[in-house]
Amino acid sequence: MSRVAIVLSGIVLLAAFCYGQGANPDPAQGAPAAIGHGSFPVKIDKTLDSSKLKAGDAVEVETSGGFKLPDGTLVPKGSKLVGHVTAAMARSKGDAESELAVSFDKLNIANGKQFSVKGAIQAVFPPADEPDPGVPSASTSPHSGSAGGLPPPDYRPMTEVKSGSNTADSSGVQAAADPKSAGVHGFDNLQLQDGVLSSKGKNVKLGGGVRLIVRADILG
Questions:
Q1: 40 belongs to a structural domain
Q2: What b/e readout covers 119-128, taking b as 16+ CB neighbours within 10 angstroms?
Q3: What is the pLDDT of residues 123-167, one digit of tens each?
Q4: Measuring CA to CA, how many Å separate 201 from each of 89, 90, 125, 184?
Q5: How many domains is the chain built from?
Q6: Of 6, 11, 21, 118, most Cβ neighbours within 10 A?
Q7: Enclosing domain of residue 80
Q8: Residue 7: phi, psi to the nearest 5?
Q9: Opening angle at CA 62, ends 89 and 215, nearest 5
Q10: Does 110 reside within a domain?
Q11: 61: nearest Cα among 191, 212, 220
C-alpha cells in the first residue's frame, strides 16, 4: 500500500471515530437536573380501584393547595399531577391481599409549564366531608376556615420529609394538609408501605375526594 493510501485510510478512521463520539453523547448529559425534593397535598378526582385498573393505566390528581418550588416557581392549587399505575391487583382465591401502586411522572401547572417528576404516595386521608379520624366532633366543611384539609391561600415552600416518618397529629384536618404527614389515616384495613397500598379486602379503592400527600423529586 502506498504512503498516500495509508494517510487517507488514517484520515477516514479518525473521521469515523469523531463522528461516533458526536452521535453517541453521554446519556447523563441529557438527563434533566433535579430542582427540588419534597411533599405536597393532592386530591383524587376519579376513583382509583385496583379491581378495574391495570399496570400502565393513566392516573391524574390535582394539587389541593399552592406551593413554591425551590427555584421560585409557583404551583397553584388545581395543578395537575399525572402518573400511571405500576401495580393493581384485586384479591382472589389464594391471594393474601389486594394491591395498588401509582408512580407520578409529570406536574402540569396553570401557565402551561410542565415538569418531569418522580413521585409516590406518602399519606392517605378520607375526603374532606367525612368525619375527621380521631376527632369525631370536628367540622370538616370546606366552607369553614381551613377545614377541608386545604393549605392557607398563600404559597408555602415545598416541604421535605424523610421517607417513613409520620408526624400527623390528632387533627385530621391539619394532618391532611401537612406535607410531613405519612401513612394511612381514617381507613380500616388499608396499609401503605414504600408507596404501595395493600388491603386484605377484595380491592384497594380510593374514591373521588380522597386526599393524598405525594412525595416527589421535581426535575427541570
A1: yes
A2: bbbbbbbbbb
A3: 999 998 754 443 332 222 233 233 333 333 455 666 554 433 333
A4: 11, 8, 18, 15
A5: 1
A6: 118
A7: 36-219
A8: -60, -45
A9: 70
A10: yes
A11: 212
